[in-house]
Write a structure and sequence with these properties.
The chain is of the alpha/beta class. The chain folds into 2 domains: 254 residues, Type I PLP-dependent aspartate aminotransferase-like (Major domain) (Aspartate Aminotransferase, domain 2); 142 residues, Aspartate Aminotransferase, domain 1 (Alpha-Beta Complex). The protein is built from 15 helices and 12 strands. Strands 1-7-6-5-4-2-3 form a 7-stranded mixed beta sheet, with helices on both faces. A 5-stranded mixed beta sheet has the order 8-9-12-11-10. Helix 1 runs antiparallel to helix 3, helix 6 packs parallel to helix 7 and helix 11 packs parallel to helix 15. The longest helix has 22 residues. It is globular, with a radius of gyration of 22 Å. The structure holds pyridoxal-5'-phosphate. Pyridoxal-5'-phosphate binds next to helix 4.
Amino acid sequence: MKKENQAQIGTKAVWAGEKDYLVHGATQVPVIPSVAFGYDDMDEWYDVAIGKKKGHIYGRNTNPTVQAFEDKVKALEGAEAGTSFSTGMAAISNTLYTFLFPGDKVVTIKDTYGGTNKLFTEFLPKLQIEVVFCETGNHQQIEEELQKGCNMLYLETPTNPTVKITDIKRSAEAAKAVGALVVVDNTFATPINQTPLELGADLVIHSATKFLGGHADALGGVVVGNDSSLVESIYHYREINGATMDPWAAYLLLRGMKTLDLRVKRQAENAGRLAEFLETSDLVESVYYPGLPTHPNHEIACEQMRGFGGMLSFAVKGGVETVRELLPKLEYANRAANLGAVETTVGPARTTSHVECTPEERAAMGIPEGLIRVSCGIEDGEDIVADFKQAIEAVSLLLKIEG
Ligand SMILES: *Cc1c(COP(=O)(O)O)cnc(C)c1O
């Protein structure tokens, strides 16, 4: 038997979670699209139905392909338990709705993902759940708010799109002191760069749609944790609520995850190179990348992350007008509302992560209208830098002529 638990994370990405699901000597986990699972033995059926015996009953609850996906994520995050969802937003909303009740309070940061921010500003208040937004990176404010009493600390680090960093360990300690549940969205970092459970988080969430899958061809979400009763509660909410991952998506995500370590390392390398180049450009006002020594939370990033990830953003002079000219000139980039794919993907924050917000709301979050989010792909770094260089040069020339 292979000792997967002791293996390095790149090895786990390839091997973990699969062997229980292989059949007929196949070396790959099969897609099992069956909606229901049949039993000739009524007693066995009953035992599986009440959870006394391992097995599957109905696809909304569990499915073998989907479970293999969950098992691989568990191995990568070093978690005891996990459950999956149709999308990342389903993972987030199901987790919030499982644990929060009228009168409860959540402490979070201003820079969460746009959809998450909508849950906090629009949906939770309808249930009389209070959400307190702290300045991202202001640990003192987070601690002060937690000390007033709180049910859940919800973090995302690095954030979307300005890649701000929050100290997970420090914040989790303050949350634990008041008995608050600590939830971390680890989508941007990936388990290759950061494992929040080791830093004190109770639950770790991913939009598997992004880096875990990595090929922009399947939607999915997942929650993992070490306290299986917490995960069990979320699973119970989801099996009834019905935001179940599709087995075909699970297969694609599972296959994508095999190369997670390779991809994420290459993406981080490319992001570092591109960030350094952008810092030297006259058209660029500011560059946001946790790997840059100029990043305000660079030290915390060095402490809690093993790599700085493939995400960066930069603000261009001339705002939206410059963005409009610049992005179409990139040859090797998809202009799309996605991230974490093997192809470099770009988009303005106002059209992608924070399209749900008004310009005023974006300004309040420190998101300039001329902000471009870049998710670096696995192309050759030289080509990516050269591509941005030619696009910036062409736009600089154009703006100079017009000006
Ligand atoms: C995309 C994303 C989500 C939402 O995931 P979906 O799969 O699109 O529902 C949540 N958090 C972060 C950080 C994301 O980037």
